[in-house]
Design a protein that fits this description.
CATH architecture: Sandwich
Radius of gyration: 16 Å
Distance between the termini: 50 Å
CATH topology: Immunoglobulin-like
Largest sheet: 5 strands, mixed
Structural class: mainly beta
Length: 132
């Protein structure tokens, strides 16, 4: 099974067309604001390493999001990743938009490979009093 090299949640990501380098913008660790927070746009970026015997196989990469309320969002970002090339590393970008957070606490992102959790990224949500 491919091994996870890294998993990060940020506001944006870009891949340089000339060098194929990845730039991750505004890694999210904490968010303060008036609740509810609505319409957040995020991207979960993961990089997977594979061995030669894993070529020409399909793997399912999913993103599970758990809100501070404990509600688990549907895993609607499932992607089939086919490791058919000779590249050893594969990147997956999972874009999330329209996320609504109603209360403070931990917003937890999990990346899953074939249904198995492989890593988490937690963003702490702080309520900001609009009168401050």
């Amino acid at each position: 099974m491919p091994s996870l090299e890294y998993f990060i949640v940020s506001e944006g990501v870009s891949v340089d067309q000339n060098t194929n380098n990845v730039s991750v913008f505004a890694i999210l660790e904490e968010i303060s604001g008036s609740l509810p927070l609505r319409g957040s746009r995020l991207v979960a970026t993961s990089s997977w390493n594979m061995s030669p015997d894993e070529q020409d196989r399909d793997f399912q990469v999913a993103l599970r999001i758990t809100l501070p309320s404990g509600k688990v969002m549907p895993e609607s970002n499932d992607l089939k990743v086919n490791f058919t090339t000779t590249r050893r590393r594969h990147r997956v970008f999972q874009h999330v938009s329209g996320l609504a957070v109603e209360k403070p606490g931990d917003l937890v992102f999990e990346v899953l490979l074939d249904g198995e959790p492989k890593a988490t990224h937690t963003i702490t949500i702080h309520a900001h009093d609009p009168d401050d």
